[in-house]
TrEMBL record:
The keyword DNA-binding does not apply. It comes from the Bacteria. Keywords: Oxidoreductase. Residues 54-232 form the TauD/TfdA-like domain. InterPro entries: TauD-like_sf, TauD/TfdA-like. The keyword Oxidoreductase applies. This is TauD/TfdA-like domain-containing protein.
Length: 237
């Protein structure tokens, strides 16, 4: 099992000249030590969320617009859409309490979108994915974005979100509702046709992944108030 300092060493070895990083570890994780040392020991910095430097993902037991406080199904998405085209490069999940093992996390490698992007890039480039945050505010992001490290084209999604034409489009180029519906179906057919990696959390599991290249979802099968994950978002300094 890694120590927090050893984890920091592993993070500092991430090759940012390529995209698609995905690391899975067992860690005796001290989040206070991690927060204090991340910028001193690595090339990365913390990206604050709506909750601050860390987010506790645990069911509150009451209905909530904050998906981190619920256990139910949460469809594929990238974290940080509230930053509008500036999603964090890396996301870290740490399992503090595995709970009763009825809710897992699925990861979708967006390399499976490559053919879709190649065939439909003109339409995809005209669309935004609009994320609706917990306060009901709409946050518009380009559906296709360039990877921060490599410039690769990435397709991003949100759960509580919808597709719309980009605001700066010439009116003569706005896609029709039928076109938007068609591409939405193709996106989710691509996801449904792929066998995604489903991680069944155990205590001390830690996963850190490229937030632009991997979408993730919660496969929820019931309320689990004991399950507790810590989420931390990172970007290059």
């Amino acid at each position: 099992m890694l120590t927090t300092v050893e984890l920091l060493q592993r993070i500092n070895e991430i090759d940012t000249s390529s995209s698609g990083y995905f690391g899975s570890f067992k860690v005796n994780f001290n989040h206070i030590e991690f927060l204090n040392k991340i910028s001193l020991h690595t090339m990365f910095k913390i990206v604050d969320s709506n909750d601050g430097k860390i987010t506790i993902i645990q069911d509150s037991g009451v209905e909530s617009a904050d998906y981190s406080k619920t256990s139910g199904f949460f469809d594929f998405h990238a974290d940080g859409l509230q930053y509008e085209n500036d999603t964090p490069s890396l996301v870290l999940f740490y399992c503090k309490n595995q709970g009763v093992q009825i809710n897992h996390t699925a990861f979708f490698d967006t390399k499976h979108f490559e053919t879709l992007i190649e065939n439909d890039i003109d339409l995809l480039s005209k669309l935004s994915v609009v994320f609706v945050d917990r306060m009901g505010r709409e946050r518009e992001n380009s559906l296709l974005q360039n990877h921060k490290w490599t410039g690769d084209i990435c397709l991003t999604l949100g759960d509580r979100a919808f597709l719309k034409p980009r605001n700066n489009l010439d009116k003569s180029k706005i896609p029709s509702l039928r076109e938007i519906s068609r591409i939405s179906e193709k996106i989710f057919k691509t996801i449904n046709d792929v066998t995604c990696h489903v991680h069944k959390w155990k205590n001390n599991d830690l996963i850190i992944f490229d937030n632009q290249k991997y979408l993730h979802s919660r496969v929820g099968m019931g309320i689990d108030k004991k399950r507790e994950l810590i989420r931390i978002c990172l970007d290059k300094c």
